[in-house]
Design brief:
Layout: E1 2-3, E2 8-10, H1 15-18, H2 28-34, H3 43-46, H4 61-76, E3 80-82, E4 88-95, E5 98-108, H5 109-114, E6 117-118, H6 125-138, E7 140-141, E8 145-149, H7 153-162, E9 169-172, E10 178-184, H8 187-198, E11 203-207, H9 209-222, E12 235-242, E13 248-249, E14 251-255, H10 263-270, E15 275-279, E16 290-295, E17 298-303, H11 306-309, H12 319-328, E18 343-347, H13 351-360, E19 366-369, H14 375-383, E20 394-395, E21 406-407
Parallel strand pairs: 6-11, 8-12
Antiparallel strand pairs: 1-5, 2-3, 4-5, 4-10, 5-12, 7-21, 8-11, 9-10, 13-20, 14-18, 14-19, 15-17, 16-17, 16-19
Length: 410
């Protein structure tokens, strides 16, 4: 299921300068602002288009070539160094009072292909192709996949042993998130961690479906009569956390128009299914089956009747699916949220103010605040071999890119 690897990582004095947000949570403009005065930021590797003129095709050869050049520059300056021997790494994220501690490892592509590493989302071909090209160009996986595993007392004890020693890095990013990394070199502990994860029935992709799918495609492309199951391309970079430590925020929805309805017609149609209550303050749903709605500078609480929210089907009982089935599809005409340009999404970390701002500006007509999907719901969907609707989960805090990368040696 997992194995140690010789990670490529920053020397301690550069760790804070290198650490960067995941490539896919910041826009090009945000990434350019974040690297101002930071020549060693890993965004130069993960989002190399920021070092090229505006308007460059983000999927062009020159973008990936710039990423390779930027990585080589960091290697030549000894900002990044390769571990001498295969290791595991313990990784702790801290956000306010919340902490979660996981294991950085190389995860088997074969386990992914067989369904032991379980997925719950479809991927977009353009984003998957981008990561394939990025891995191939750099000959490395630089963005870790976020995985969950069912809480294990044995794994918790072993991670406790790993984190009892002084860390290699301890830093706080610009967004206030703390990142602490320990190197696990003791062979007995490495073996015990491998055994503990091998005993797990499954690992669950929480975030990183495009990265894991791309790694599997690279592995398939590189398989020849001379390759073996243990070759580095048969594994992908991941960080696995116990499920009960993971934190999911809501993934809110915004729609650009009311599908030809007036405000009164829209409210009347919604009220045929939902209980609609106007309120004088922002509405953050407190329970499943409740939704906040912001329309024409007014907040409403929408409540779905219990008989409509109580499905035994692991997908149909998700709040994101309930909103789609009973409002987005029949009222607003949103039938394919993966491709319909009329719908957009906002991670809960941006707050309800973001929903108000985008509706008040006229960019959007209506916004919906969601109750967060639980990790147990995610695992139930994955265990059933089903897929969740797009943008069902927003995990927070986010991993940092650049603290450990997985080099493909063949």
């Amino acid at each position: 299921m997992i194995r140690p690897f010789a990670g490529l990582r920053p020397q301690p004095q550069y760790a804070a300068e290198v650490a960067a947000p995941p490539y896919d949570v910041v826009s090009t403009q945000e990434a350019r602002a974040l690297v101002t005065g930071r020549p060693w930021s890993f965004l130069h590797v993960s989002r190399p288009a920021i070092d090229l003129p505006d308007g460059v095709n983000p999927y062009s050869y020159e973008v990936y070539a710039r990423g390779v050049a930027n990585l080589q520059r960091m290697l030549e300056a000894s900002v990044l160094v390769r571990e001498a021997e295969p290791c595991y790494y313990a990784y702790r994220l801290t956000m306010g009072e919340h902490t979660q501690t996981g294991l950085v490892a190389a995860v088997s592509v074969a386990a992914y292909e067989s369904g032991r590493v379980r997925r719950h989302e479809l991927t977009r071909p353009d984003k998957e192709d981008d990561r394939v090209r990025h891995i191939d160009a750099l000959n490395a996986q630089t963005g870790p996949v976020l995985l969950a595993y069912r809480q294990s007392p044995r794994a918790a004890d072993l991670l406790g042993q790993a984190t009892a020693q002084p860390p290699a890095y301890q830093l706080r990013a610009a967004d206030g998130i703390g990142h602490t990394l320990w190197v696990v070199r003791e062979q007995a502990l490495i073996a015990a961690l491998g055994d503990a994860f091998e005993a797990a029935e499954a690992l669950y992709i929480a975030d990183g479906h495009h990265r894991s799918a791309a790694a599997a495609r690279v592995a398939a492309d590189r398989r020849t009569g001379y390759t073996q199951a243990g070759d580095s391309h048969e594994y992908f970079l991941a960080v696995s956390f116990p499920h009960d430590e993971m934190r999911i925020l809501p993934y809110n929805r915004l729609v650009r128009d009311l599908n030809g309805l007036s405000e009164a017609e829209f409210l009347g149609t919604v009220a045929k299914v939902f209980a609609v209550e106007p309120l004088g303050q922002p509405v953050a749903p407190a329970a499943r089956g409740d939704f906040g709605m912001y329309l024409c500078r007014q907040w409403y609480r929408l409540r779905l009747p219990a008989h409509l929210a109580g499905s035994a089907d692991p997908v149909e009982r998700l709040d994101v699916q309930l909103l789609a089935r009973h409002l987005l599809e029949p009222v607003l005409g949103i039938h394919d949220p993966r491709r319909d340009p009329r719908i957009d999404f906002a991670g809960g970390v941006r707050g309800l103010d973001e929903l108000e701002r985008r509706v008040n500006s006229g960019e959007m007509a209506v916004a919906f605040a969601m109750f967060p999907t639980s990790i147990e719901e995610l695992m139930a969907v994955a265990d059933a071999g089903r897929l969740m609707p797009p943008k069902s989960t927003w995990f927070e805090p986010k991993l940092a890119d650049g603290l450990v990368s997985h080099v493909l040696d063949l």
